[in-house]
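Quick one, T. Sequence first:
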Amino acid sequence: MTACRVRVTSADHTTLLRRAVRGAVKNERLGYPCVADVFMVSDKELREVNRERRGVDKTTDVLSFPARSPEEFPLPDPDTGRVFLGDILISEERAAAQALEYGHPVEREIAYLAAHGALHLMGYDHESEWDRAVMRRKEEAVMEKLGLSR
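Structure tokens:
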């Protein structure tokens, strides 16, 4: 099995975030060791990043910033031998609000957003209905393995 190191900046939900990202990576069978960073941030911080990096002045629940495009050959860090996938930023407030809105535990929402972000790091998107359906199946597969399915 290819391992993915997940670095988390929050003391809350660290294990859950790691398991969700690793689950998404494992399902994709990347074939090389990797690393990803997950940041739990405030709604205000995520809005600022969204405005600065994407030119969108509104809040959102999760943003992902892949370190490379899917077409690029993965180059491992010479010191660690791991390929850096990129950063995932999750709004703590939006996750809590959406969990309440959808009627499920905040842990499920946080894990879902982490898996969603990880899939974006690996090149998935949801611009078309077909892409959205593919991503949703992959997200739900991770949730099921975590015991957090609907």
